[in-house]
From TrEMBL:
<dbReference type="GO" id="GO:0005737">
    <property type="term" value="C:cytoplasm"/>
</dbReference>
<dbReference type="GO" id="GO:0006633">
    <property type="term" value="P:fatty acid biosynthetic process"/>
</dbReference>
<keyword id="KW-0444">Lipid biosynthesis</keyword>
<feature type="region of interest" description="ACP-binding">
    <location>
        <begin position="256"/>
        <end position="260"/>
    </location>
</feature>
<comment type="function">
    <text>Catalyzes the condensation reaction of fatty acid synthesis by the addition to an acyl acceptor of two carbons from malonyl-ACP. Catalyzes the first condensation reaction which initiates fatty acid synthesis and may therefore play a role in governing the total rate of fatty acid production. Possesses both acetoacetyl-ACP synthase and acetyl transacylase activities. Its substrate specificity determines the biosynthesis of branched-chain and/or straight-chain of fatty acids.</text>
</comment>
<feature type="active site">
    <location>
        <position position="255"/>
    </location>
</feature>
<dbReference type="InterPro" id="IPR004655">
    <property type="entry name" value="FabH"/>
</dbReference>
<dbReference type="InterPro" id="IPR013751">
    <property type="entry name" value="ACP_syn_III_N"/>
</dbReference>
<dbReference type="GO" id="GO:0033818">
    <property type="term" value="F:beta-ketoacyl-acyl-carrier-protein synthase III activity"/>
</dbReference>
<keyword id="KW-0808">Transferase</keyword>
<keyword id="KW-0276">Fatty acid metabolism</keyword>
<protein>
    <recommendedName>
        <fullName>Beta-ketoacyl-[acyl-carrier-protein] synthase III</fullName>
        <ecNumber>2.3.1.180</ecNumber>
    </recommendedName>
</protein>
<keyword id="KW-0275">Fatty acid biosynthesis</keyword>
<comment type="pathway">
    <text>Lipid metabolism; fatty acid biosynthesis.</text>
</comment>
<keyword id="KW-0963">Cytoplasm</keyword>
<comment type="similarity">
    <text>Belongs to the thiolase-like superfamily. FabH family.</text>
</comment>
<dbReference type="GO" id="GO:0004315">
    <property type="term" value="F:3-oxoacyl-[acyl-carrier-protein] synthase activity"/>
</dbReference>
Amino acid sequence: SAGIAFTGSGSAAPAATLDNATLSQRVETSDEWIHSRTGMRDRRIAGPQETLAELAALAGERALAMAGITAVELDLIVLATSTPDDLFGSAVSVQHALGATRAVAFDLTAACSGFVFGMATAAQFLRTGTYRNCLLLGADVLSRWVDWDDRRTCVLFGDGAGAVVMQAVEPARDRLLGFELRSDGTLNHTLNLGFVGEAQPLAGDLTYASGSYRSISMNGREVYRFAVERVPEVISKALFRSQLLPEQLDWLLLHQANQRIMDAVAARLKLAPEQVISNIPRYGNTSAASIPLALDEYVRTGKVTPGHAIAAAGFGAGLTWGAAIFRW
Ligand code: ACO
């Protein structure tokens, strides 16, 4: 089967920044509370004129430029998102914005695990030789879906987009070493963004559900406990599949949900704090975007260099979680 190489990264975020002090004008909170518990200081917020697809397309353009391929060469666009502009899917808008006329494009929903789930999905098409050039995007605008009067959740989230180009190469150049994915729907109540409808008369005896999606609902403590326990476990499984030892890793690239979660996972895996990739002070939790957004920053600043071994792991609503081990 074909090898897979990561040939470009890109990212984009709205210009508007919301800092902890400004947030404390909206809800009863403080910079001290937020920073000490999460590591967050700023997050970016998309305005009403900014679309998810535009953010994702900008991240995608930058990744294509780094990879040195054009949009028409793309065979596949996978957009990991839980907050599409269009409930029918936003990957097609990204395809249109990029001019990726040959590519098939679809959305993939796995909340904050979306990017890792997307990587595993794209890999199937590349390994089998079905497609050669894939743009994998993670993008979310959770600012549209948080309750801005609920301090337990609204302080945590921000908007952004990130992308990588994955290309089929000869097996000897394979860079995706292994992955491991998990889901547990019994824990859905701990973190969700559900539709709630009320019966409305339709015609005859029939009723239909009229309503809308509510805002994010989360039990922070339960999600924290889940992450600290399950993420090291799934990374260990993915490392085993990859025939790699934790000490052979250069970087730990976790979903940027909370600095304390990232530090606890690193400690469990006996990795040094300097190996933890983090941009959480500046972006907060950008859901499916957080992993490629942080990766792109480390690639562009020359911290992550070709050949570096990276353990990436996403975790979040579903509940879903998963890890991918790859070399940049
Ligand atoms: N400012 C000030 N006080 C606050 C705030 C706030 N923003 N939020 C909560 N508090 C208060 C609470 O009301 C509570 O007060 P009480 O004891 O008087 O009731 C107290 O602070 C402690 O609240 P906890 O929720 O227990 O705080 P905790 O220490 O657990 O930290 C946090 C909360 C940061 C959310 C943490 O639980 C966490 O990070 N959990 C994981 C979240 C996560 O990873 N989510 C992933 C989402 S990914 C996705 O798929 C969308």
